[in-house]
């Protein structure tokens, strides 16, 4: 009996030494690219840092758009 190669936990009770064997394969090679990117960018401390940076960027974008829009809306006509 040969073990199958797949990600996850495999439990093998039948071996030569009569000992139970548990092996964990955590390879990400079978995962789709979007899942690897999500796992890298949206978990742990990196996710918190990205949310903070994204919040600052969104704040400045809204501030600049509001300033430019307000300038053109309230601009006095020159004769």
UniProtKB/TrEMBL annotation:
Keywords: Membrane, Transmembrane, Transmembrane helix. This is Small integral membrane protein 1. The keyword Transmembrane applies. The chain crosses the membrane at residues 48-73. Residues 1-26 are annotated as: Disordered. InterPro entries: SMIM1 (IPR031744).
């Amino acid at each position: 009996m040969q073990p199958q190669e797949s990600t996850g936990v495999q439990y093998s009770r039948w071996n030569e030494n009569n000992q139970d064997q548990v092996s964990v394969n955590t390879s990400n090679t079978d995962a789709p690219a979007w899942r690897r990117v999500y796992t890298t960018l949206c978990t742990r401390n990196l996710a918190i840092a990205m949310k903070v940076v994204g919040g600052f960027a969104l704040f400045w974008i809204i501030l600049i758009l509001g300033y430019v829009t307000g300038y053109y809306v309230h601009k006095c006509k020159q004769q």
